[in-house]
Amino acid sequence: MLFYKDLGSGVPILFIHPPGMGHKVFRYQQSLSTKYRVLLMDLNGHGQSDVRTTTSVEQFVLDVKSVLDHGHIEQAVICGYSAGGMIAQAFALAFPNRTLRLVLAGGFPKVSSRILDAEFRLGMWLIKRNPEKLAEIIAKGHSQMKQFQLELQHYMLKANRHVWYQFYQATYHYDCSHSLHNLMMPILLVYGKREVWVKKHLSMYEVCPNCTLYEIPQSFHQTPTKTPLEFNQAIDYFVRVEERG
């Protein structure tokens, strides 16, 4: 069973979380449900979803499809955050007819910068040795509010350790950079102005025929939680403009 929240009505927007975090990382995106149908899911082995024996990018893509099928949704805006953007891109490539638009928050088609590489390696190392510390570090990096930090940390520790590790590993080795030209749908790239180690991947998206860049001033990587107002406004404007177009 896959757990997901289904809020509001209108154009569907489905959010895909990074390794370990579950749907709780999109706490502040729930407010978009006043205008849109917002779907916040826990991928296999995360949060309140069941654990599957096999884990891969392709299997996570099928998780996303299952949620859309269960919700009787033909097309949706697919939004992936950080490594969750890998799943979003893989879904858009596999099911372009189901992808109305694509939003990548701190997205990258492959891991090709030193700092990002080090972050993935550290994450995998800590999952095996001290997942509690990893959850604490990530939670504190996503909010200055103690209550929200504890909420994120607690929810991350619900993730199955094997699936959590495999999510990191699968996205660490994933590379869709040579297929980006096939993404014909409108794409929104959202980056924090100061997340230079991830923005190094930005030039790879120049081959996408319908791509828009939005940078949030004074922000690092954690745009959904650290600058939610600007992040949500960017998505709202992107969807509304494309709807009118």
From TrEMBL:
PANTHER family: AB HYDROLASE SUPERFAMILY PROTEIN YCLE, MONOACYLGLYCEROL LIPASE
Name of this protein: AB hydrolase-1 domain-containing protein
GO cellular component: membrane
Phylogenetic placement of the source organism: Bacteria, Bacillati, Bacillota, Bacilli, Bacillales
GO MF, one annotated term: hydrolase activity
Gene3D superfamilies recorded: alpha/beta hydrolase
Residues annotated as domain AB hydrolase-1: 12-107
SUPFAM superfamilies hit by this protein: alpha/beta-Hydrolases
Species this protein is from: Pontibacillus litoralis JSM 072002
Keywords: Hydrolase
Source species, domain of life: Bacteria
One Pfam family in the UniProt entry: Abhydrolase_1
Keyword Hydrolase part of the UniProt annotation: yes
